[in-house]
Amino acid sequence: MQHEGRELLLQVKDLEVRFGTKRHPFIAVQHVNFDIYKGETFGLVGESGSGKTTIGRAIIRINPTSAGDIIFKGEKINGPISKELDRRVTQQIQMIFQDPMASLNERAKVDYIVSEGLINVAKDMPRPQREKSVAQALADVGLLPEFASRFPHEFSGGQRQRIGIARSLIMEPEFIIADEPISALDVSIRAQVLNLLSHLQRKKGLTYLFIAHDLSVMRFICDRIAVIHKGQIVEMSETEKLFANPLHPYTQALLSAIPLPDPLLERNKKLIIYDPACHDYAVDKPRWQEIEPGHFVLANEQEMEGHREQLATSCRISS
Ligand SMILES: Nc1ncnc2c1ncn2[C@@H]1O[C@H](COP(=O)(O)OP(=O)(O)OP(=O)(O)O)[C@@H](O)[C@H]1O
Ligand SMILES: [Mg+2]
Question: Which CATH code fits 8-318?
Fold first, then answer.
């Protein structure tokens, strides 16, 4: 295994999340399996409504799970857990949200917004200590300490996302779920926020689950990527292997949607549209299979044969 010797931080095993009623359930995600190692950035990519946020919210215990296990540092954290473990999970796993315009409480000052989580877990923390923590969290994300007394509407989108990041950092988490943290931002400031996230990762030894709906930025920041379609993961691999040999037709479609820097190539590019009817799963059922070390794909036996051929050809070409 390529991850030998690395510390497992999070394991998601056969996860299922349902909404709706018992009579009319809606299965938002099912058979979801992945591991996240300490210090890595693990990407989860898929189109709108595929279940990415649902998985993130299941990990932070907002969404109840209907099957499967979520194991954080060796302990099961879904379902009923002790108060003490719940407190630890609340502190150690944080989530950054997509829309910094909607996710901050407009009526509260930055000081309160940033320290709200801290107040919940450390109720008796003396005020000066809390203020110091807020100032430190703001400094960590490149904001001035005097911003603490201002309201969210006084800030730009990029600054507001920094406030959102400060709110998670103040908890001193080990693991951060960044749910489309740059999608709502102007293109010009996306890189700044990404650079900030990767700087913080190095400085504080953070582990990220990075959620996005397209693959374009993921190549630069993710160590491994899982591709999700309609609530099921269809492919998972180290980033470079996934870009070199996308096997599932849905992954190929996502890759073809990445804009190319060369305008001529971009104009002549062929967009691949994914059609789920391309699979013949009536008899030969798909399974989640490891096709090369660390590279998993949802495929049936006939598809696996084709995938093996593709990998063998690409191996011959590159050697
Ligand atoms: N609380 C809920 N109650 C009922 N259905 C829900 C709930 N939360 C999510 N869903 C449904 O579950 C599916 C997955 O939603 P989810 O928000 O996880 O998608 P997503 O991949 O994060 O999409 P996006 O890229 O738009 O954020 C959708 O069909 C959504 O409507
Ligand atoms: Mg979402």
Answer: 3.40.50.300
